[in-house]
Amino acid sequence: MILEVLNEQLKKVLDKLNYQAEEIKIIKSNRPDLCDYQYDGIFKLASVYHQSPIEIGIKIEEELKKIDNFNNYFDKVEFVKPGFLNINISNKLINDILIYMNNNEKLGLKQPEKKETYFLDYGGPNIAKPLHVGHMRSAIVGESVKRIIDYMGHKTISDVHLGDFGLQIGQVIYGIIKYNKNINEIDLDFLDKIYPEISLLSKQDEQIKEQCANITKDLQDGNDTYIKYWKKICEISGNDIKRIYKYLDVNFDLWYGESDAYKYILEVEKIIESQNLFEISQNAKIIDIKEKTDTKELPPLIFQKSNKAYLYGTTDIATIYQRMNDYNPDHILYFADARQSLHFTQVFRACKKSNISKNVNLEFLGFGTVNGLDGKPYKTRSGDAPKLDDLFNEVKEIFISKKESNKEMLNSDIDKIVNAILKFADLQNNREKDYIFDIAKFSEVVGKTGPYILYTYLRINKMVLNENVENISQNIYNNYDRELRKKMIEFDLSLNNAFKEKAPSIIAEYIYDLCVLLNTFYQNNHINGLNNDLNKTDWIYILKLSTKVLKEMFNLLMIDVPTKM
């Protein structure tokens, strides 16, 4: 909102001076001690029109000062050599935008001219394997990005895309046969034990590995006995996965699995065959995905192995084909470990070459690993990645131990705080980077943590909850007040950047900065002792709006507010 207003006023002046800029882009100043916003497009105008940037800058400054109602928008505009326009906005503009935000749905966020459809693939757990800390990032990063896209006014469709037809199923079925288990004896405890056991045996014994692969192939070909086992495994494991995602408030529109793509494989195979894209290498069908601009050698995608079995690449191509036929999205976004980048490059290029992905933007949004204090992927003392259930309990125990009164909190409130600890710890980091997961640090009520932002919200909300204020004056009373209000009117800048970059960390940064400013404001402005009723009313209005902004932003990070802390 603020940038749109400023850009509009600047465009009028540039048009009057007969300067046509390709893009008018005022930016937030990185020197807030000098100005609020800045325009540095003067250098480009000087190059285009073969004039001195100083001459152009002085003209722009002079014309801006002549506009109607200058004081409604600006406190000060100043050209600074060699080619910058420094802008300080007026108190009236700040307050007008705050009133507009408070009186409009979604805080007055501008809706898109064209509503696009985004298909999001995140979660991606394998059936029969317990969810561990590594699964958390895909789930909460994907869910957060989905909520951001929804909030921006676009349509989203989300799919968990379960790994339910791969080698791990063959290994579990091998274990069922090995121990002669009746189908009714298969439960979650059995699955938790049998998969790691047979997985280890497969690594140690080539014959067992081959038997598991053959079982997987027979399952994919429709073996009746294996299908019955498979359905039971999917039911038990799927229900447990849903339980954990429910705890994290991660929701999917579709619960499709890899198996759902199998019925499309033959259609996809015919399409690729008709374009002569298949090559045969060691009796396997492959697709060469190299491009002339590649700076390194990329291996081909294996579409079908020599034993006629299909791989993840095949089912991923078939899944894209299915999604295009059923939903015709404008974008398909994949959230997975950054180390799968090559796999998705192969899949996307194969789809592009065969025109399966025609008119859709395919995007892989890789993320880094969750690391322990040693900088290596987060492990338990036994050397395994901790199950998410165990991680939840560990975080809960650490938070409760922080102070005696935490033991008396409602379980529902503790669960909300545990979620905030985990989610804010993760989402505040650049999605593409690895990060150190320090439970003790992230559980503190001070610092850049989930408890800190929740505590800030609860403290401010308690103060203004029962107050009813409908409007504000044009006054701003001190610098603590002004900085808080400026941050609030920039909420849409944060949101637009988070949408553009598919980066929840931008939202998390905004929330934290706003909370810091709120606490600074609170410590330096004592509302309860004020004798000036207008001042008190204005500040209550601002604080109530700040809790509204925080609540909206919390929802984008799947953070719920407890009743107390």
Summarize the structure.
The protein is of the alpha/beta class and 565 residues long.
How is this structure best described in words?
- The chain is α/β, with parallel strands linked by helices and 565 residues long.
- The chain has three domains: 88 residues, Gyrase A, domain 2 (2-Layer Sandwich); 268 residues, Isoleucyl-tRNA Synthetase, Domain 1 (Orthogonal Bundle), CATH 1.10.730; 75 residues, no CATH class.
- The protein has 21 helices and 13 strands.
- Strand 5, helix 6 and strand 6 form a beta-alpha-beta unit.
- Helix 18 packs antiparallel against helix 20.
- The chain is globular.
How many helices does DSSP assign?
Answer: 21
Mean of pLDDT: 95
Percent helix range: 40-55%
What is the number of independent domains? 3
Q: What ranges have pLDDT less than 50 throughout 5 or more consecutive residues?
A: none
Strand content: 5-15%
Q: What sort of overall outline do the alpha carbons produce when their principal axes are compared?
A: globular
CATH class of the largest domain: Mainly Alpha
| Helix/strand class | alpha/beta
CATH architecture designation of the largest domain: Orthogonal Bundle
Query: What is the makeup of the main sheet?
Result: 4 strands, antiparallel
